[in-house]
Amino acid sequence: MIRTKAEKQEMVTALAARLRNASTVYVTDFTGLDVAKITQLRRRLRLAGGGTDFVVVKNTLARRALADAQVQGLEAHLAGPTGLVLTGADPIAAAKVLADFAKEFEKPAIKVGLVDGKTVTPELVKRLASLPTKHELLAQLGGALQAPMAGLVCVERLTDEHGGCPRGAPDQARRGRGGRFLTQ
User: Is residue 181 in some structural domain?
Assistant: First the structure.
């Protein structure tokens, strides 16, 4: 499809705006992926949340958009078929989707990433993918904060019900065991 100079400039301006809003950019090589698989990848990335999207772009237009958005460190990796993964909120969720998709279909290949203004290698992107997501970390933190309070409430209930703390009750409450208590 032949585009006019004005259409190309409009594409560059739109991509530059998206690059400015993205805290994380992953540059991928999508060689070997057909349209159906790219569509599937786009769906998975959108489901990851945070406004994550996969954009196929010509390298020349990508270079212009990167320069316009003042994003440094990715220009050298714009060669061959290039797809950009743009995400704002959670770089780990997007890395997980890319890594899982690459395991399943052996594509796309990650060329480089830019996380919070710092260039990251493909190996580091894979390591990021192995980390828990932001939501998983928050759930773990909540569970860790709730566990001591839940144990305390359980011990208080045992104490109130039995008129004192039976021998072994705190230990049983901590382990979540039910059953009879040993008397003193």
Answer: no
CB atoms within 10 A of CB 84: 23
Cα–Cα distance measured from residue 45 to residue 96, given in angstroms and rounded to the nearest whole number: 9
Same domain, 82 and 168: no
- Whether this prediction's pTM lies above 0.90 is answered by no
CATH number at residue 64: 3.30.70.1730
Question: Which residue range(s) make up the domain with 66?
Answer: 5-131
The amino acid sitting at 74 is: L
User: What is the block-wise mean pLDDT of the chain (184 residues), using blocks of 10 residues?
Assistant: 84 90 90 90 86 89 90 87 87 88 88 88 87 79 78 72 57 51 47
Distance CA 14, CA 32 (A): 27
* 152 and 167 share one domain: yes
DSSP H/E element including 26: strand 24-29
| 180, part of any domain | no
CA atoms within 13 A on the CB side of 133: 12
Tokens 């994550």 identify what position? Answer: 52
Q: What 3-state class would DSSP assign to 110?
A: strand
